[in-house]
Structures
1.
Amino acid sequence: MRVFVTGATGFIGSAVVRELLGAGHQVLGLARSLAAAQALVAAGAEAHTGSLDDLESLRTGAAAADGVIHLAYIHAFSHAPLATRLRVLLSGWPGGIATRFIAAIGEADRRAVAAIGDVLLGSDRPLVVTSGVGALAAGRLTSEDEAGDPHSVAAHRLPTEALAAALAAQGVRTAVVRLPPTVHGDGDTGFVPRLIDIARKKAVSAYVGDGHNRWSAVHRLDAVRLFRLALERGEAGARYHGVAEPGIPTKAIAEVIGRRLRVPVVSQSRPEAARHYGFLGPLFATDNPGSSALTQERLGWHPTQPGLLADLEQSARYFTS
Ligand SMILES: NC(=O)c1ccc[n+]([C@@H]2O[C@H](COP(=O)([O-])OP(=O)(O)OC[C@H]3O[C@@H](n4cnc5c(N)ncnc54)[C@H](OP(=O)(O)O)[C@@H]3O)[C@@H](O)[C@H]2O)c1
């Protein structure tokens, strides 16, 4: 299959490209810079020039492919396209800059998927989009069949999930892959490296309350296999959970970080954690376990890579500053 991959140069996307090429697919990767295009060609893929704010580039990329995996995402205000930043600054949306930014990137994601989906209408071609287990209800083990919770920490992902469901009813073989808050492995730039960085700078590794609240996790190499299987075999409108470990107590994460950095491990109240970790404080306080039992049954996906705590214990790369 010739697959258009957005976010093909990112932490997960670059591994998706290798996974697809290794399975005999051809890859057309979205590149928004010369360096990105060169990296894709060096990896054995073709580069397609464009960006999330250039919707026509997404349409032409999708039109040239037999299927699409959408992983591009704007993660930082400073990296956001000018149009998104202006929308955040000038909009009358409620909340501070951070709240408005999160809403704006959710909307940018939905618009990108709408542009891609438009081209695929009635084709039965696969479109795999990315969401998060964090978009589901907190405090209990959640399953693939559950709809998202508008009050969840990743509720900004829900408009894209809703659009994927609507596209499935219009002849697009959409699948939503919900990832856990931590996808770990070589080159990780996500939340765990930030927790480590803050613990190093402040010389203390903190968890919130009793630290029994849970985070789910998956190794990057397991996650990318799931993206390939969802592309190849996903059912229209399906939701899959890329979860290898359903619920790791956050205290255990803080403990391994403290041990590796040789800094004290302490409990903090929610307000203390918000000061200590910034925007990560409320996220690290969330209890968000997710099950992948249905995904494993429906796609025959079985994670085989080391778990998060083992990866942190064994890996030097997380702890080299
Ligand atoms: N990593 C995790 O732990 C984790 C956990 C849960 C969910 N996720 C989700 O998984 C997806 C992939 O994450 P990741 O960790 O691979 O992210 P990443 O390493 O930050 O990569 C983001 C990708 O998006 C591209 N991108 C950003 N802004 C763009 C724009 N305006 N136009 C076009 N491309 C743009 C980047 O291109 P450049 O290379 O040019 O910057 C890069 O290829 C995202 O939806 C993310 O939120 C990740």
2.
Amino acid sequence: MAVRPIRLFGDPVLRVPAVPVIDFDRSLRKLVKDLTDTMLEASGAGLAAPQLGVGLRVFTYDIDDELGHLINPVIVTRSDECQDGDEGCLSFPGLAYPTSRALSVVARGFNVYGDPVEIDGSDLMARCIQHETDHLDGVLFIDRLDAEQRKLAMKDIREAEWSGGPLVVKESPHPTYGTGR
Ligand SMILES: [Zn+2]
């Protein structure tokens, strides 16, 4: 079992588009295993490779006890019908906001052995596929929030313990003799 640290919002790696997997080799199998172990340990519904600092187009999911992964995913169909529900992310511990997503999607990609795979997902599965595929493009769920929710999210993030707390004005290293704040 290899649980690895999850990169948190603010880490630039989360904003870098990931590159397609070319070699379906042992190191890819290790990556899928690490993603799976880390996701399960964190009780997440999905985890994308950039969240472990790896810039490859790979994600894992654990939806309704169905454990899986998808490599080089492409969403080929999105329903016009949308779902509204709270969405969170392991890179934003403890935070969740209503996020509009397509109700169902069809995604194509490959399994770890290089075999083509198609996933026809709705509800949570569809939400997960959209969320994780976004990660591979450097897009985060807060980008999908409406303006009001995003404002709320940014405030919560600034106040979150993991984000280093609120921005603090750097204090002068020189004595201020009581005139400083
Ligand atoms: Zn996420």
